[in-house]
Every structure is written in structure tokens, then in C-alpha cells.
């Protein structure tokens, strides 16, 4: 009894000491400053097809600086603030942006790269208790169906309430209520801020309770009739919902080997617009549900990882990417960056290998080939039948803080909608990032 009393007194004394030192001033002085310098350069040959979007004929380079500050914890609360500034090097010969018709994206300016301006992209209050984190305010979100993009110098952000909990054993639960999507373009373009009068809601769950099996799924409901008007490559002017479920199983064999499958869908309340042909009533996917699925097998032989995959979209409609950018759960492709596998009636087969060729250098080689039904071409307004992409992805950590990445790709398009016969494109994209 005496020992328990002494132990209790010691714990109370320790707690009181911790509480006494936990002041607001100390929370501020114990804060952490971090940042990143992001230099991106993109160059591509011209092509008659608009299917590759802003990559077409690109010759763009820009740099962005991101500065972030997070306070220390004060009774579980933290404040996070982040600022970013982008500057284009203006290496392109023409800067005009053409968004429709046969000349869409034909200029050398890829506006996703060449963003000039400044914006407060992080400003939120965070609270942690046990293994649950609450955030309210401006923040980055990365989930399969809601995501900011890391593929360009400046980043998007969301004004949202987020709850991320890992309190349940082998389970991660994420809930989001989003009031505003602020694109990186918004530093100079107010129209690239999407306000949701009715908050967009999403629930994501991941579970690993069964040995060797990972299950995950997400549901997203855009309840406002503003829809997703600026999102590429599909857009809609009304509310919609989208979902996906996915499973990955590690096979009990002597070599690392796994199989996986996903199923996804979108239910539109309004018409789906077809990019440059959005004003053509005959070039809309219409309403209703779109479904898609994928299967894969992957593993490792000696020091080389590999993956083979097949995906299929129904003829009914194209899959509306996600809130933010193209869905992150489409890892069943070959790792391609410059073509999409989410159009109506489209199928893809892909192969990817990750060999260890050079010490310290990550190397990835991928190939994807597409087919598309006649109905899918009519519904989607694009022709991806016979298209293919081969890509090399090289990454090297020069120092602990400085890293480089080079993507090289050759794209073949057999686009019946193109105005000419030039249907091949070569592209190079260089990333240099310094974190501090």
C-alpha cells in the first residue's frame, strides 16, 4: 500500500512538472520551421492530338518556395502555417493559353508549371488526443479520391475539417468535410477557388486485421451543384458521388508475391462535359453511374520488383477523376504520368519493373497500352484506342536534403479526332527539390 502511494505521488509530481513547463510561450519557441525549394522543368514535342493536355508542345520551367511553421504542442493543440511563392522562368516562346478546339494546349506554356504569385496554402488549428488528429482550416489532403498534386511547383489546398484516427486496432479512419478547394492557380486567378455551400463529405477506411490482407475504401459526396467545373480531364456542373474499394493480398509463397483488385464507380446528377467540346450537346457522357475495375499481380524476383495489371472502364461514362486531381488509387497502371486510363469504354494493360541497376538510383520502367470501344469513344469524346506510353523514371538523392528526378516518356496516339498525322510525343520532366 505504501509503495503504491509513493508511486502515485511520484506520477502526480511528474505530471505537475510537465504541466508547469507547458506554456504558450514555450509552444511558440519550440515550434518547427521547415520548407522546400521546388524547381521543375518540362519539355515535350508537339503532337496533333489534344489527349495529352498541357503536356502538348510544353517548354516550361519554374521554381517555387514553400515555408512552413508548426508550433509546439500546447495541451494537445498546434497551429500550422505555410506560405508558397511561385516564379516562372518564362522560357516558353508563347504564353497564351488556348483551352478549346483543335489548338487546345498547343502553346509551349504548361500553366500547371508556370504559376507566378504567392498564397497562404496552410493555415490550420490541429488537436491531437491519443491516436486521433483533428484539423480545421487550410490544409493539404492526400487520399485516393481527394488529393493535392505533388507533380508541379506549387500545390493546391483545401479549407476543411479533417479527422484522422488510428485508435482502433489495425484500422485507419479518415473523415473530411470540405468547404473550399483552392487551386495553385488561385494566386493570380480568383476563379480557381471552388466554394461549396453544402460541404463536400468523404470517409476513408483502411484495415489490416487479416494477416497479409490490406483492405481500403473511400466514399466522396460532392453535394453542391457547383460540381467539379475545373477538374481535368472530366468535368460536371452538378453534384455527384464516387467510391472505390480495394484489396491487396500477399501470397504465402517463397518469393514476395501479391495480388490485388479494385472496384470503383461514380454516380452523376448532371451531364459530364468533354473538355474542349463542352458546348456540344452530343459530346457529353450524360447522367448515371460509371463503373470500373482493375486487377494486378506484383512481386519481386532477386532485386527486381515487377507489376502486371489490367483495368477496364464501363461504356456508360468516363470516371470523374477525384476532388483535386486524377485518383491516387489508380496504381494499377504502369506508373504512367502522361496518359490516362479513366475514359469510357477504355481498357489498359500495363507492365512495370523496378530493377536495381545503379547503386543509390531508383529506376522504374513502365509500359501501358490502351484499347477503347466505339461506344466509349462516342460517350467520352476522345479516342484512346491503340494508344500507348513507355516511360522511364529515375530518382537520385544527391544529398540528405537535395534530390533529383527525371521522367522520360514516349507516347503513341492513334487519335481519330486529331487534325493531323503527327501522333507521337516525346517528353522529359526534371524535378529538383531541396528540403530544409
UniProtKB/TrEMBL annotation:
Keywords: Signal, Transport. Belongs to the outer membrane porin (Opr) (TC 1.B.25) family. Gene3D superfamilies: Porin. InterPro entries: OM_porin_bac, Porin_dom_sf. GO terms for cellular component: membrane. It comes from the Bacteria. Pfam families: OprD. This is OprD family porin. Residues 1-20 form the signal peptide.
Amino acid at each position: 500500500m505504501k509503495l503504491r502511494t509513493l508511486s502515485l505521488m511520484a506520477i502526480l509530481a511528474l505530471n505537475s512538472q510537465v504541466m508547469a513547463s507547458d506554456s504558450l510561450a514555450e509552444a511558440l519557441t519550440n515550434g518547427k520551421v521547415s520548407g522546400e525549394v521546388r524547381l521543375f522543368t518540362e519539355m515535350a514535342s508537339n503532337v496533333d492530338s489534344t489527349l495529352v493536355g498541357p503536356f502538348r508542345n510544353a517548354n516550361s520551367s519554374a521554381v517555387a518556395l514553400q515555408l512552413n511553421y508548426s508550433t509546439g504542442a500546447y495541451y494537445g493543440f498546434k497551429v500550422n502555417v505555410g506560405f508558397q511563392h511561385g516564379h516562372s522562368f518564362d522560357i516558353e516562346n508563347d504564353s497564351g493559353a488556348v483551352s478549346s478546339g483543335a489548338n487546345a494546349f498547343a502553346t509551349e506554356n504548361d500553366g500547371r508549371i508556370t504559376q507566378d504569385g504567392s498564397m497562404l496554402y496552410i493555415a490550420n488549428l490541429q488537436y491531437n488526443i491519443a491516436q486521433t488528429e483533428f484539423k480545421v482550416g487550410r490544409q493539404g489532403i492526400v487520399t485516393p479520391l481527394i488529393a493535392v498534386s505533388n507533380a508541379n511547383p506549387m500545390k493546391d489546398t483545401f479549407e476543411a475539417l479533417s479527422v484522422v484516427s488510428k485508435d482502433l486496432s489495425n484500422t485507419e479512419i479518415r473523415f473530411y468535410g470540405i468547404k473550399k478547394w483552392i487551386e495553385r492557380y488561385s494566386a493570380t486567378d480568383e476563379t480557381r477557388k471552388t466554394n461549396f455551400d453544402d460541404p463536400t463529405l468523404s470517409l476513408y477506411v483502411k484495415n489490416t486485421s487479416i494477416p497479409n490482407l490490406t483492405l481500403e475504401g473511400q466514399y466522396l459526396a460532392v453535394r453542391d451543384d457547383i460540381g467539379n467545373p475545373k477538374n481535368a480531364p472530366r468535368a460536371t456542373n452538378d453534384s455527384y458521388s464516387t467510391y472505390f474499394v480495394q484489396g491487396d493480398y500477399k501470397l504465402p509463397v517463397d518469393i514476395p508475391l501479391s495480388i490485388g483488385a479494385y472496384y470503383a464507380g461514380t454516380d452523376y446528377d448532371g451531364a459530364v462535359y468533354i473538355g474542349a467540346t463542352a458546348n456540344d450537346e452530343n459530346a457529353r457522357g450524360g447522367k448515371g453511374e460509371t463503373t470500373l475495375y482493375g486487377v494486378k499481380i506484383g512481386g519481386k524476383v532477386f532485386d527486381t520488383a515487377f507489376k502486371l495489371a489490367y483495368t477496364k472502364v464501363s461504356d456508360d461514362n468516363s470516371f470523374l477523376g477525384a476532388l483535386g486531381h486524377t485518383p491516387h488509387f489508380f496504381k494499377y497502371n504502369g506508373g504512367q504520368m502522361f496518359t490516362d486510363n479513366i475514359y469510357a469504354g477504355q481498357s489498359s494493360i500495363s507492365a512495370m519493373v523496378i530493377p536495381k541497376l545503379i547503386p543509390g538510383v531508383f529506376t522504374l520502367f513502365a509500359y501501358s497500352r490502351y484499347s477503347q470501344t466505339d461506344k466509349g469513344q462516342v460517350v467520352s469524346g476522345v479516342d484512346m484506342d491503340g494508344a500507348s506510353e513507355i516511360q522511364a523514371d529515375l530518382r537520385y538523392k544527391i544529398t540528405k536534403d537535395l534530390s533529383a528526378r527525371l521522367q522520360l516518356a514516349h507516347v503513341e496516339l492513334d487519335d481519330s479526332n486529331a487534325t493531323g498525322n503527327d501522333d507521337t510525343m516525346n517528353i522529359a520532366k526534371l524535378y529538383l527539390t531541396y528540403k530544409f
